[in-house]
Design a protein that fits this description.
- The chain is α/β, with parallel strands linked by helices.
- The protein has a single domain, classed as 3-Layer(aba) Sandwich (Rossmann fold), CATH 3.40.50.300.
- The protein contains 7 helices and 7 strands.
- The chain has a 5-stranded parallel beta sheet with strand order 2-5-1-6-7. It has a two-stranded antiparallel sheet with strand order 3-4.
């Protein structure tokens, strides 16, 4: 398939998911999207109380081996059954989502650039840089309204794990980025520039593939 792989990283609530989704909508059927959050470890051996105490903002919380396997499968032209995650139970859902390989593969997540093995698989690395006060407000709204969390639990988690892990892993990882975008999907100028670049690169890959098959 000779896919172009784009990694979009940034802190919680930075706007990276919005940016990724807008790019997919703009590029259309030539793009596929997977989220790092889908690859949290499935800790079925732990009680709910034990799962609640896991630091989900640390690299060890992710099933990186499965993520890399699926990413490489997509790059090679295959399809995957992407896991889905139940945030209320802190477990994987029984449901999976079939993802087909495309000329453009986008993967987004808070800790993408903290893992050297993942970074090696990325052709373009985009870091979404957003002020901390904006990010925490967005996280509160998301977790309370969409994930069934209490305001107190969101604030406690932010102070105990989210902010320390951001400072330790996410903020330093932007040094590997090729492009740094303030405000993510809400930065319309950056979005237009990135989409134009990606569409051009996708078209070049499609033309190269067509020439190889002639």
């Amino acid at each position: 398939m000779n896919s172009l792989v784009i990694g979009i990283c940034g802190g919680t609530g930075s706007g990276k998911t919005t940016l990724a989704q807008r790019i997919v909508e703009s590029v259309g059927e030539d793009a596929a999207l997977i989220g790092m959050d889908s690859y949290y470890k499935n800790n079925t051996n732990l009680t709910f109380e034990e799962r609640c105490r896991i630091n989900y903002d640390h690299p060890d919380a992710f099933d990186t081996d499965l993520l890399l396997k699926d990413l490489r499968t997509l790059k090679s032209g295959g399809s995957i059954e992407c896991p889905t995650y139940d945030y209320a139970r802190h477990l994987r859902s029984e449901k999976t989502i079939r993802v087909e390989s495309r000329h453009l593969i986008i993967i987004e997540g808070i800790l993408l650039f903290a893992n050297p093995d993942i970074v090696k698989e990325l052709d373009v690395k985009i870091f979404v840089d957003t002020d901390a006060d904006v990010r925490i407000l967005r996280r509160i709204m998301r977790d309370v309204n969409e994930r069934g969390r209490s305001l107190e639990s969101v604030i406690t988690q932010y102070l105990e794990t989210v902010k320390p892990m951001h400072d330790s892993f996410i903020e330093p990882s932007k040094r590997v980025a090729d492009i740094i975008v303030p405000e993510g999907g809400f930065n319309h100028v950056a979005f237009d520039v990135i989409c134009s670049m990606l569409k051009k690169k996708v078209q070049e890959r499609k033309e190269k593939k067509d020439n190889e098959t002639v």
